[in-house]
C-alpha cells in the first residue's frame, strides 16, 4: 500500500520505517528540511537501537522516502498517518494540538481522492472529531475517514514493540476504513497480534488511560519503597511477591527515582485536564503526578543523607542522565532535578552517560561532563547510579575505591546488592532498603 506519515519525529520515523519493512511504500513528510536531508543520507536524528539500520535498508530498497513536500506525498496515498508532536501546552498542561490541526488543514488542501487520515499522535478524547470537522470545512467535496490508531512504543524497544505489539487499537465505525486498516496491519497477522477495533473516542482514551495507569503503578511502588526503608523491609521482594499475582503482574514494579520521558509526564497532565474539561476529576492520577515530581528532588536528599547530611564542598558523580537506558531522551529525566538539588546544596557535580551527553548539555548546566564512569568518579565523595545502562551493571569497584575520595554508592535503580558492594569497602544505599552504613566508614563520611 501507499502510505504517508506526516512527522519525522520519534513515533513518525519508527512507524514509517517499520511500515516500509512490512513491504508498504512509505513517504515520510516533515517541515524540517535539514532533518529530511539528513534522513535521506542515513543520519538519524534520534537514538533508537536498530533504527538506523532499518531506515538505511528500506531507503536502499526504495520502499521508504523522505520529503518536505506534503502535497506530493499526500497525492497518491491511500492512508495518511498524522504523527506530529503533542507537547504539553505552556501554562495549563493541556496537550498542544496545533501541529495536529495544521497537519489536518494541509492534508485537506492536498488530498485528491478518498483518503483515510489516521491519528497516530497521542491526542485527547474528541480530537478526531475536530480533525474531521477541519477537513470537512476545508474540503466539503472530499471523501475521507478519520481513524484513531494510538501508538504504544517504548523508547529503547520501539521496533520490537511495533513489530510484535501486545495489541493494535483502531478506532473507527467506518467499515471501509476498517477494511483498509486491516490491510495495513496484515503483515502482523503472522505474529498473531490482536487488532482491537472500537469507537474513535474510546481508542483515543485507551492510550491516555494506559499511560496514566502505568504512571500510577510506578508511583505506587516508589511510595512502598519509602515505607520499606522506614519499616526495614525489602521493596524488591515486596514487588516480586506482588507481581506473582496475575491480577497485578510484575512489570512497572521497579522502585526508582521517578518516571520521566516524553509520554508519562505530559500524558498524565493532559488526561487530568481532559477530565476537568468534562467536569470530572482524576484525583489518583493528579496525586501520582505530584508525588512523582516531588520524588526527584527527594532522591537528591537521599544522596545528601548518605554523605553525612551535607554535600557542600564535596564532589558527587552521576552515572546516567537519560530518563531510561537505550535512548538519548532527556525530557523530564529525574537526573535534571537531582543535579539541580545537589548544586543548590553546594556540591560539585560530575556527570556521564553513554548516549545522552549531547542532549543533556542542552538542559543541564553547572556540571562537568565526563566520558565514562571512572573519570566521573575521580575524587568524588559519592557516586550515584541514576540510569541503569548496561555499562554501569558491572563496575570495577576496586578501581573505583582507589579513585574516589569517599567510597559511597547511592544506587537509585537497585542494580547491585548491598553485601556485594560492602565487600569492596563501600557504603551502599539503594531504594526501598534500609540504608547500610558500615561502622568502619561512618567517621569518614561524617
Short synopsis of the structure:
The protein has helices at residues 10-21, 33-40, 51-60, 70-75, 98-110, 127-138, 158-163, 175-184, 200-231, 235-243, 264-277, 283-306, 334-344, 357-360, 373-377, 397-403, 418-422, 439-445, and strands spanning 2-6, 25-29, 64-67, 79-82, 115-119, 144-148, 168-171, 195-198, 315-319, 348-352, 368-369, 382-385, 408-411, 427-430. With 446 residues, the protein is α/β, with parallel strands linked by helices. The chain is elongated.
Tell me roughly what share of residues is in helical segments. Answer: 40-55%
CA radius of gyration? 24 Å
First and last CA, distance: 67 Å
Lateral arrangement of strands in the main beta sheet: 3-2-1-4-5-6
Taking all residues together, what is the mean pLDDT? 94
Report the principal-axis shape.
Answer: elongated
Runs with pLDDT <50, length 5+? Answer: none
How would a crystallographer describe the biggest sheet?
6 strands, parallel
SS-based class: alpha/beta
Helical element count?
A: 18
- Strand percentage lies at 5-15%
- Give me the count of strands: 14
Written description of the protein model:
The longest helix has 32 residues, at 200-231. Helix 8 links the parallel strand 7 (168-171) and strand 8. With 446 residues, the protein is an alpha/beta fold. Helix 9 runs parallel beside helix 12 (283-306). It contains 18 helices and 14 strands. It has helices at 10-21, 33-40, 51-60, 70-75, 98-110, 127-138, 158-163, 175-184, 200-231, 235-243, 264-277, 283-306, 334-344, 357-360, 373-377, 397-403, 418-422, 439-445; strands at residues 2-6, 25-29, 64-67, 79-82, 115-119, 144-148, 168-171, 195-198, 315-319, 348-352, 368-369, 382-385, 408-411, 427-430. The N and C termini lie far apart (67 Å). The strands form 3 sheets. Strands 3-2-1-4-5-6 form a 6-stranded parallel β-sheet, with helices on both faces. The protein has a 6-stranded parallel β-sheet with strand order 11-10-9-12-13-14. 44% of the residues lie in helices and 13% in strands.
Amino acid at each position: 500500500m501507499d502510505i504517508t506519515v506526516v512527522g519525522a519525529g520519534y513515533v513518525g520515523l519508527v512507524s514509517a520505517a517499520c511500515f516500509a519493512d512490512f513491504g508498504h511504500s512509505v513517504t515520510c513528510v516533515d517541515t524540517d528540511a535539514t532533518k529530511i536531508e539528513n534522513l535521506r543520507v542515513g543520519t538519524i536524528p534520534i537514538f533508537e537501537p536498530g533504527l538506523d539500520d532499518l531506515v538505511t535498508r528500506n531507503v536502499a530498497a526504495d520502499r521508504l522516502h523522505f520529503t518536505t513536500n506534503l502535497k506530493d506525498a499526500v497525492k497518491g496515498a491511500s492512508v495518511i498517518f498524522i504523527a506530529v508532536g503533542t507537547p504539553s501546552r505552556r501554562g495549563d498542561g493541556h496537550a498542544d494540538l496545533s501541529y495536529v490541526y495544521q497537519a489536518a488543514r494541509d492534508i485537506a488542501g492536498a488530498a485528491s481522492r478518498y483518503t483515510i487520515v489516521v491519528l497516530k499522535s497521542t491526542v485527547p478524547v474528541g480530537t478526531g472529531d475536530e480533525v474531521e470537522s477541519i477537513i470537512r470545512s476545508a474540503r466539503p467535496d472530499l471523501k475521507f475517514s478519520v481513524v484513531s490508531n494510538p501508538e504504544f512504543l517504548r523508547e529503547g524497544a520501539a521496533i520490537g514493540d511495533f513489530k510484535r505489539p501486545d495489541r493494535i487499537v483502531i478506532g473507527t465505525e467506518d467499515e471501509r476504513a476498517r477494511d483498509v486498516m486491516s490491510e495495513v496491519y496484515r503483515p502482523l497477522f503472522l505474529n498473531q497480534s490482536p487488532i482491537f477495533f472500537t469507537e474513535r473516542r474510546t481508542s483515543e482514551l485507551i492510550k491516555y488511560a494506559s499511560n496514566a495507569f502505568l504512571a500510577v503503578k510506578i508511583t505506587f511502588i516508589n511510595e512502598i519503597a519509602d515505607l520499606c526503608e522506614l519499616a526495614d523491609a525489602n521493596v524488591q521482594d515486596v514487588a516480586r511477591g506482588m507481581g506473582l499475582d496475575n491480577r497485578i503482574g510484575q512489570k512497572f514494579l521497579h522502585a526508582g527515582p521517578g518516571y520521566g520521558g516524553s509520554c508519562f509526564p505530559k500524558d498524565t497532565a493532559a488526561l487530568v485536564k481532559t477530565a476537568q474539561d468534562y467536569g470530572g476529576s482524576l484525583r489518583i492520577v493528579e496525586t501520582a503526578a505530584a508525588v512523582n515530581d516531588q520524588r526527584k528532588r527527594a532522591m537528591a536528599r537521599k544522596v545528601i543523607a548518605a554523605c553525612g547530611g551535607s554535600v557542600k564542598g564535596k564532589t558527587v558523580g552521576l552515572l546516567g542522565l537519560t530518563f531510561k537506558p537505550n535512548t538519548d531522551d532527556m525530557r523530564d529525566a529525574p537526573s535534571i532535578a537531582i543535579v539541580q538539588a545537589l548544586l543548590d546544596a553546594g556540591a560539585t557535580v560530575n556527570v556521564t552517560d553513554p548516549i545522552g551527553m549531547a542532549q543533556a548539555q542542552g538542559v543541564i548546566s553547572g556540571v562537568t561532563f565526563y566520558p565514562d564512569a571512572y573519570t566521573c568518579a575521580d575524587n568524588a565523595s559519592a557516586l550515584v547510579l541514576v540510569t541503569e545502562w548496561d555499562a554501569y551493571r558491572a563496575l570495577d569497584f576496586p578501581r573505583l575505591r582507589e579513585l574516589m575520595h569517599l567510597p559511597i554508592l547511592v544506587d537509585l535503580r537497585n542494580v547491585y546488592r548491598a553485601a556485594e558492594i560492602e565487600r569492596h569497602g563501600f557504603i551502599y544505599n539503594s531504594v526501598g532498603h534500609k540504608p547500610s552504613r558500615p561502622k568502619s566508614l561512618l567517621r569518614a563520611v561524617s
